[in-house]
Amino acid sequence: MNSCFRLFIALTLLLCSSAASFAAPPHKVDRPPLSERWFGIYVDNERVGFYRQNISESPEGYLMDGYGSVRMKVMGFSKEASTRETYLVSKNLSLRSFDVEQTINGSSSRVSGKIGDGVIRLKSEANGKTTDKHIKVKGDVFPGPALNIYPLMRDPSAGKSYKIVTFDPEESKVKDVTITVLGEEKTPEGVPGLKLRNNLYPFVNNDIWVDSQGNTLMESVRDGLVTTRSEDPKLLGAFVGGVALAKKDLIYDFSLVRSDPPIKEPKKLTGLAVEITGWNDALLLLQEGGQTAARLGAERVSIRTGSLAAAPAASEPKKPSEAYLKPADKIESDAPEIAAQSKLLAAGINSQEELVKKLASWTAEWLNDTVDDGGGALASFKSRTGNCQTHARLYTALARAGGIPTRFVSGLVYLDGKGFLYHSWAESFIDDRWVSVDPTYNQLPSDPTHLKLLEGHLAEDLAPIIAIIGRIRINVLETKY
Predict the structure, then answer these.
(1) I want to staple 215 with a disulfide (CB 3.0 to 4.6 A). Which of 17, 54, 105, 272 is the partner?
(2) Of 97, 94, 138, which Cα lies nearest the Cα of 115?
(3) How many domains is the chain partitioned into structurally?
(4) Is the same domain home to 332 and 393?
């Protein structure tokens, strides 16, 4: 494997946490920072990936788990990778066990194992083959996520240097690393921190800034060519949500949610009931549009769709908000071109349901499907290109122009033979109820594998996806045909 690429992958494995500024002189800490943190990965200041890591306590020490995805073009070559990793470490951060899954250019592998009595016992799985391997080691071995915290749990005084052994799961071997404390210094962006340097990569410096708790603020390789920066999850969430809904390679493997068991003949499905585990309980559970949802316990919810959705309670139908009839950013239902096209398509139509069907069908045919977002409704109307978000915006604008209350929604949809992927569609208010409409796949109503998780088309509406992406699992409870 090219050393430049190993550098990229290792960057995702080195991240620890981010948070407060460095407000006090460096001092020893008793434990690593216990929290969840998010990072953006950049090449020449262009974001090419992201990484999330969580550090929590366990009876044996600490659990360090993380996941991320990166796509880069450097020095004439292009590489794509995603990773999921879990490390169990002792109180002094030394490695006890590990489980690392990686997908590099579409090729998946897994390395897992334990360390004890001076031996790392690991199992490698790749290309349908399983290999067992024993690696003899002397003394403690540390995982990548522990390297930036290590000096602060010893002595972070300027000039201190530490030689330790780290485990590289990509190459399934150990390597010697020297970590040097350079002293207090602001990051290139002006944030106070403690600067460290290690020689993890050959021929280049790996500079790291951490705060007083051991949270990583920034990493820089080759004088800023490659950087990882701590970021606000809400801001990073908009980026992650955008690439997930676009089903881009950067996040495809990472965002795919496999179901257990797989769904047979999804096109013939009339109803679906699933359990989602790993749910973030701070998120709303969305109803309507042919869907009912309920909480089953901590981080567990159920969603029922189609003929398996619970019947709505008898009550007066709710009048939809007037906002669902008005133009909005990128949903220009008042644009002359949009209004004229909606009126043209409505000619000879006798019911709202017929009009919705006509608008969805026309949108699916008008737009050429791409992985890139085609922008707002008006822009895509003119360019005739865009992804599922683009389809949903254009349809929503046409429907609102035609007097049909319509909203933009996002969630998961089943891809036959693969699993669930993030997707956007719409809901229109017809005959006193919300009906799911998919203008990408020309479905009215949308098939029962559409699991609605979010409402709204703005970046801030999509940002909550970061709380569940890469974490949730789906168990199929019931199917109906």
Answers:
(1) 17
(2) 97
(3) 2
(4) yes
Please say which residue of 203, 231, 259 terminates a domain: 231
Residues 6+ apart with CB under 8 A from 323: none
Cβ atoms 373, 242 nearer than 8 A = yes
Please determine, for residue 5, whether its predicted confidence score (pLDDT) is greater than 50. Answer: no
Distances (CA, A) of 158 to 148, 190, 212: 15, 19, 14
> What is the per-residue pLDDT across 253-263, written as a single tens digit (0 to 9) for each?
567 888 999 99
What does R_g of the chain's alpha carbons equal in angstroms? 25
Looking at per-residue pLDDT, the higher value among 186 and 460 belongs to 186
Q: Which of 195, 215, 231 is the last residue of a domain?
A: 231
Q: How far is the C-alpha of 263 from the C-alpha of 419, rounded, in Å?
A: 8
In Å, what is the CA distance from 67 to each residue of 45, 95, 351, 370, 472? 21, 18, 48, 27, 13
Q: Three-state DSSP class for 359?
A: helix
Q: How many CB atoms within 10 Å of residue 117?
A: 6
**pLDDT tens per residue across span 114-167:** 999 999 999 999 888 999 999 999 999 999 999 999 999 999 999 999 999 999
Contact 169, 125 (CB under 8 A): no
In 3D, which of 350, 341, 362, 357 has the Cα closest to residue 428?
357
CB 197 within 8 A of CB 218: no
CA–CA dist 378, 328 (Å, integer): 12
Q: Do 197 and 323 sit in the same domain of this protein?
A: no
Range of the domain at 389: 236-480
For the cut 80, the answer to whether the pLDDT of residue 247 exceeds it is no
> Do 410 and 377 sit in the same domain of this protein?
yes
DSSP state at residue 65: E
CATH classification of the domain holding 385: 3.10.620.30
Q: What is the DSSP letter of 447?
A: P
* Count of helices and strands (H, E) across the chain: 8, 25
SS (H, E, C) 7-32: HHHHHHHHCCCCCCCCCCCCCCCCCC
Angle between helical axes of 388-401 and 352-366 (0-180°, round to 10): 140
**Among candidates 335, 315, 316, which has minimal Cα distance to 327?**
335
